Amino acid sequence: MTARPVLQQADIDRAITRIAHEILESDLGDSALIVLGIPTRGVLLAERIAAVLDRLAPGRASVGALDVTMYRDDLRSNPTRSPSPTRLPAGGIDGATVVLVDDVLYSGRTIRAALDALTAHGRPRAVRLAVLIDRGHRELPIRPDFVGKNLPSSITERVNVRLTETDGDDGVEIDGGES
């Protein structure tokens, strides 16, 4: 089966803008707002969301990266993962509202690892989750607060997110599955 395009660059841009608006419209209170991406593409998406937030509400949000490698539950079966740097704002995350950002939400295991990694760095007031694609098939009780696109898929299919910074262009495609 060939890859089927699901989102193009304009669709991704609209999704990011909508997510940024929804973040601002949600009740964040007076706490600091920190947008943390999960490497690799989650970091790029977090930076894009933070850029839109900065245009909408200058100075409202900080952006960073949260490496979850050492908190994953699949290290024994996939020991070749290499850690990425964790970058947190100078003030840390204590008392802040943290929005975790990832490209695809599937089983929920990466987000579970992210929650563990986050608590190793402090105690946020609240944690929210933003994903570009929610494809279902959750193994853990984790649900995103902000979603670019719900994409029902088969477990045999693969969702591929491409971003200009790493892949040369923006797009989301789904491939595999039954013919």
Pick out its properties.
179 residues, alpha/beta, Rossmann fold, 3-stranded antiparallel beta sheet, 4 helices, 28% helix, globular
Description:
By secondary structure, the protein is of the alpha/beta class. It has a single domain (10-76, 84-154), classed as Rossmann fold (3-Layer(aba) Sandwich), CATH 3.40.50. 28% of the residues lie in helices and 28% in strands. It is built from 4 helices and 8 strands; from the N terminus they run βαβαββαβββαβ. The protein has helices at 9-25, 41-56, 109-121, 164-167, and strands at 4-8, 33-37, 61-65, 97-105, 126-134, 146-150, 157-162, 171-176. It has a 5-stranded parallel β-sheet, sandwiched between helices. It has a 3-stranded antiparallel β-sheet with strand order 1-8-7. Helix 1 (9-25) packs across helix 2. It starts with a strand and ends with a strand. The model has no long low-confidence stretch (mean pLDDT 93).
Write the layout of secondary structure elements.
Layout: E1 4-8, H1 9-25, E2 33-37, H2 41-56, E3 61-65, E4 97-105, H3 109-121, E5 126-134, E6 146-150, E7 157-162, H4 164-167, E8 171-176
Parallel strand pairs: 2-3, 2-4, 4-5, 5-6
Antiparallel strand pairs: 1-8, 7-8
